[in-house]
Amino acid sequence: MSRAVVFDLDGTLIDSAPDIHAAANTLMDRHGFARFAPEETRSFIGSGVPHFITCCLRARGRPGDAALRAQLIAEFIDLYETAVTLTRVYPGVVEALVALASTPYALGLCTNKPVMPARAVLAHLGLDAHFPVVIGGDSLSVRKPDPAPLRAVLAGLGTRAVVYVGDSEVDAETAERAGVPFALYTKGYRKGPVDAMPHARAFDDFADLPGIVAELLA
User: Fold this and answer.
1) Domain spans, the chain
2) Which of 52, 59, 110, 198 has the most CB atoms less than 10 A away?
3) What is the DSSP letter of 123?
4) Cα angle vertex 211, ends 205, 217, to 5°?
């Protein structure tokens, strides 16, 4: 297939914020810190586990503790691989994936979630068969918004014509730096207004995505 659609994961295909929030509070309890409210940890999502833990420690007054940061990163990743029970697929995602695959477009995944937790949650939710190529935040030496992970997905799929679908400022910058059109899912974890983010199309209903992709790859 010469055309592809590549997706972000958290905040785009799945609402994983409740599981991430629970894992973060497990660590806070373990290390004697105050718990977070859901909206706090949600605002930390998008740039990978090291950034997430940095945000947690900054919020708890320990931003410069490198040893604690390293420990919490390792503990969080360990929790993360089984943090799947509270995560839900966004409405219309499965139908959109089936429609896109039948067009046919090759489908891939480019996420800042570590690759093993990404594969674990895809399998738990029955989405794994849709994505023959998955690049996570620890698959390469760099992560989004560096364009290299997205380019690695395209190389794995063997295609160049692509739409990248994501929900955040990080995703928008990744697509822009890779020189590919970006479709913005507006019900995810973005931190600012839609019109402040570079995008080719914005949508809030996955039923609209196959038509958007067809237009962008026409």
Assistant:
1) 3-15+87-216, 17-80
2) 110
3) H
4) 130
Supply the pTM of this predicted model.
Answer: 0.93
Known catalytic membership, residue 15: no
Residue type, position 58, single letter: R
Instruction: Output the CA–CA distances (angstroms, integers) from residue 27 to 6, 35, 92, 182, in the order listed.
Output: 32, 9, 33, 35
Which residues are within 8 A (CB) of 95 and not within 5 positions of it... i.e. 6 or more apart?
206, 207
Catalytic annotation, pick one of 8, 10, 138, 167:
8
Whether the ω angle into residue 145 lies within 30 degrees of 0, i.e. cis, is: yes
Place of tokens 């799947």: 84
What is the tens place of the pLDDT at every residue in 65-117? 999 999 999 999 999 888 899 999 999 999 999 999 999 999 999 999 999 99
